[in-house]
Amino acid sequence: MYKRIMIIGSPGSGKSTLGHKLHNKIDLPLYHLDEIQWINNKETIDSKLFEKTLNELVERDEWIIDGNYNRTIEVRLKRADLVIWLNYSRTICMFRIFKRLFQSIFINPQGGNPKTISLEFIKFVWNFKDTYEKRLFDLKDKNSDKNEWIILNYKHETKLFYDKLNGS
Fold first, then answer.
1. Mean pLDDT score of the chain
2. How far from chain centre, in Å, is Cα 70?
3. Is the CB of residue 84 less than 8 Å from the CB of residue 6?
C-alpha cells in the first residue's frame, strides 16, 4: 500500500477533493500546499518558510500532498510512492474554478479561497497543459523507476481508481 501520495494537476482538476477522499479511505495525513502557502486570500508566507515546512512534511513516513507549486515538484518526487496526475481538460478546470468562486462568495462566504479570480489566474488555468504537460511527462519518464504514476484524464477514470484502491 502507498504511504506517500503526491497529487498534481491544474487548478480546478480536483486535487483537494481527491486528497480528502483518499485521506478518508486510507487514513494517511493530508496536506494541501495552498493551505501552507496562503495566509489569507491576499497574502502568502515567505518562500523560505514554505520550503522549510514542505521539506519537513516530505520527510515524514506517511502523507498525501496535493498541489503543484512547480518549483517544489522534484522535492516531493524524491519521496513519493505514488504520483496521481489529474490531467483533466481545460474546460472542466475552468468550469470548476468558477464554480468554486461562486460557492466561496454565495454558499460558504466564511471559508475557502478564492473570493476573486484574476485574469492572470484564468490564463494560468487555461494554459496549464500547454505550459506544464511536457515537463510533467519528462519528470514521469525520469522518475518511473522511483515512483508509480497514474494519469487520470476523466472523472470516471478517477472514480475507477478510487474504487479499486484497497480492493473495494
1. 90
2. 11
3. yes
Q: Give residue for cell 487555461.
A: 126
Is 27:1 a contact under the CB 8 Å cutoff? no
pLDDT, tens digit, for every residue of 104-140?
A: 777 765 555 556 788 999 999 999 999 999 999 999 9
Cell numbers for 118:
484574476
3-state secondary structure the chain: CCCEEEEEECCCCCHHHHHHHHHHHHCCCEEEHHHHHECCCCCECCHHHHHHHHHHHHCCCCEEEECCCHHHHHHHHCCCCEEEEECCCHHHHHHHHHHHHHHHHHHCCCCCCCCCCCHHHHHHHHCHHHHHHHHHHHHHHHHCCCCEEEEECCHHHHHHHHHHHHHC
Supply the pTM of this predicted model. Answer: 0.90
Q: Could you give the CA distance from residue 60 to residue 134 in angstroms, rounded to a whole number?
A: 29
Buried b (16+ CB within 10 A) or exposed e, 12-39: bbbbbebbebbbeeeebebbbbbebbbe
Position 111 scores a pLDDT of: 54
